Amino acid sequence: MAQRVLSSDMTSLVSAMKLALKYSKTLLDAEYRREMLQASHVIAVDSRNLLDTVDMARRLQLYRTAQSSTGSDAASDATCDSAAAAAAEQPCE
Fold first, then answer.
1. Domains and CATH numbers, the chain
2. FRET label pair with 1: which of 7, 15, 42, 46, CA 20 to 30 Å apart?
3. Alpha-carbon gap, residue 16 to 22, rounded angstroms
4. First to last CA, the chain
5. Half-sphere exposure at residue 39, Cβ-oriented, CA atoms within 13 angstroms
């Protein structure tokens, strides 16, 4: 899913860049540059969201691994950090 979204965003960036190059010597230069910047901003936001999702999944996996390997509440308090608590939707005490 993410690959499809990023691929379509990249396609729109490439087409915006081609138009910006084509009309770089005309009065429409600023408009096509703006469209190119908008397309690149969409890619940046989508990439950041993907990175955050992957990072949260990794932290959740580490948190669950720590929980299953120790099996005690005292050990879970020791391994609990704010990111792992947010991933597991449980507060650290």
1. 2-88 (1.20.120.330)
2. 15
3. 10
4. 37
5. 21
